[in-house]
Amino acid sequence: MFTGGSDVLNADRVLIVAKKEFIGNLVSRKFFLLLLLLSLAVGIGAFDGINEYYNALELYKSGNDQIFQIPPTPVIIFGNITENLGYYGFGAIVAIALGFNLISGERESGSLKSLLSHPVYRDEVINGKALGGIISLIFAETIVFVIIFALMLLGGIVPDINSLGKICVIWFLILLFLIANFSLALMASAVCKSSSGALIISLFILFVVSYLLPVAGPELLSHLVLGDEPKTVYLADGSDMSASELQYYQDLRIEYLNQKMAMNDAFSVFSIQRVFSGLTEPFTRTTSYLYRLNMAGGDNLNLLAEEPSVYEILGDVWLKISALVMFPVIFFGIAYVRFMRLDLR
User: Fold this and answer.
1) 235-248 pLDDT per residue, tens
2) Residue 83: is its pLDDT beyond 50?
């Protein structure tokens, strides 16, 4: 039996396993339902985004927007789409549902032992299955993006070169987000003996990492390290505080809030959802992004009058992209090691 690791990875055998996995997904009812769910989530977001784009366009034409003088672009449409996939979790659900039984399901049916009895190594199996799943995600995402462009064209919305470049980056970021959650499910599938256990573990890790830890972690740590939030102390006799005393308490509170915000940012690195939202917002919610830059830069008022290019935004968020890439690398690394040591007796 070719069950060990190979000295030289055979790309042909990896592609054969990937092709088998991809075709198996295409003809399965589960993949059709997941594609339908993804299309509904993206389609609803696209309809909301188109309405938001036209409202922003009317506001810009009327001249009532006194802060931002940037003409709205079709990239606004993808704001609701990325929120549906990331913040509301539909993208995570689709990716996890695609990968939670990738290994555990075959262990339960006994087909994994049969597969490894053929001239194929374990590393080729795990790499082929992961590649087949990723190709399936690319196929599904491409279909829904074709639907989005069709809706945009039907609405008379044609993106320019800059907007088209941002849309391509958004496509890539969504793919990374889906792959990260798929890798999480693949890891759980390699660790657990049953598909039901893998699904429960995947959803539990997703909840803890993406929602519980970024919310409860900073609150608990700030309470233990920073203590209670400073409040203005009023004099017992009811007289007013001096300006210097009032400023002192205000500075204390600002420092406390800044330290708490830094803790929030640190814990957000562990959240796939928050990293993804932080990456897509500069592209889809450009006015909010520029406003934060203006607040941080103080006198950079020119930022409010110019649409940033793709390269300018990428230069600002490349660290978050690296963080998003690390999730699938870590999850797949654990799945790979576990699968290589799997006892199939």
Assistant:
1) 444 455 566 766 77
2) yes
Residue 261 lies in a domain: no
What lies within 8 Å, CB to CB, of 104 at 6+ separation is 188, 189, 190, 192, 193, 194, 195, 197, 198
Number of domains in the chain: 1
Could you tell me how far CA 278 lies from the centroid of its own chain?
9
Structure tokens, 266: 């640190």
Distance CA(52)–CA(57), nearest Å, equals 9
- Fill in the amino acid letter for 308: P
Which residues, in sequence order, are CB contacts of 75 under 8 Å at separation 6+? Answer: 159, 163, 166, 167, 170, 283, 284, 286
Task: Answer positive or negative: Cα dihedral of 73, 76, 77, 82.
Answer: positive
pLDDT tens track for 191-220: 998 899 999 999 999 988 887 877 777 777
Instruction: Sort 110 into a burial class: Cβ within 10 Å, 0-12 / 13-18 / 19+.
Output: exposed
> For residue 118, what are its two tokens?
């053929």
Structure tokens, 226? 């920073």
* Residue 40 domain-assigned (yes or no): yes
DSSP letters spanning 246-264:
HHHHHHHHHHHHHHHHHHH
Domain assignment present for residue 111? The answer is yes
| Other residues' Cβ atoms within 10 Å of the Cβ of residue 59 | 13
Q: Is residue 82 part of a domain?
A: yes
Q: Which residue carries 């929030």 as its tokens?
A: 264
Instruction: Collect all residues with Cβ–Cβ distance below 8 Å to 272 and sequence separation of at least 6.
Output: 92, 177, 180, 181, 184, 206, 209, 210, 324, 327
Domain that holds residue 77: 11-204+305-340
